[in-house]
Amino acid sequence: MNSISCNFLKRTGFGWLFLLCLLMAWGDLRNVQAQTASPTNYLAPVVVRLEKAWPQNHLVNIVFHGHSVPAGYFKTPMVDSLHAYPNLLREALAERFPHAVINVIVTAIGGEDSVKGAARFEADVLPLKPDVVFIDYALNDRRIGLAKAKAAWTEMIQKTLAADVKVILLTPTPDQAAKLDDPNDLLNQHAEQIRRLASEYHVGLVDSLAQFKAAVAGGTALTTLMAQGNHPNAVGHKLVAEELIKYFPSLLPPASK
Q1: I want to staple 85 with a disulfide (CB 3.0 to 4.6 A). Which of 62, 197, 205, 240 is the partner?
Q2: What does the angle CA 212 – CA 156 – CA 169 come to, to the nearest 5 degrees?
Q3: pTM for this model (two decimals)
Q4: What are phi and psi of 231, to 5 degrees?
Q5: What is the pLDDT of residue 17?
Q6: Are 170 and 204 in contact (CB under 8 A)?
């Protein structure tokens, strides 16, 4: 029901229906508000800064906080950060915004879970004065459980938003030992929890797991996307990077570049 019909009920004396109408409208409002931020405009203030040319341009800091995947681990102990998704995003941004000064900072630590990541968030992330923070911990969060992971992610989200910084959450990349088609598998449960957090806080979401599942459904063998059981290879990282760059659409017409 809309506000006009509610007001009609109020004027005509149907008090209980009026209250019911208000409750329904409030529920609709909550549903509208509780949505994941749109990639087309969530980072608009950041994109405006990226579009500026010298001498009006400013440094833009993008921080990736998480575990071994954003840290660049491929087949352990090999680290290939040049082909990991943070650097792939850096390259894509440099091409899209040729006048921008971009600093991509990786604070990810291999083997870490979100509880440990939250414990060092104020010391290692916020002092970097980020414009955007990406968080990716779900692969390792399976060992700490959904409740502890939710508390840690919530803490990091709230601290980021309190600092007036944009935050984008990532669902996990696959683990070949997981049952990707089973909603009760821990990997899927953590992915779903991250989706709910992104919706609840109206922040960005990069659904990495969904992209890998779509690739597999399209006929791509999961093994061709993985460097080892729980680390994607360069092709897998590219799948994630292609979703990341969607949050940075150019706002200038082609002739203005």
Answers
A1: 240
A2: 20
A3: 0.86
A4: -130, 125
A5: 46
A6: no
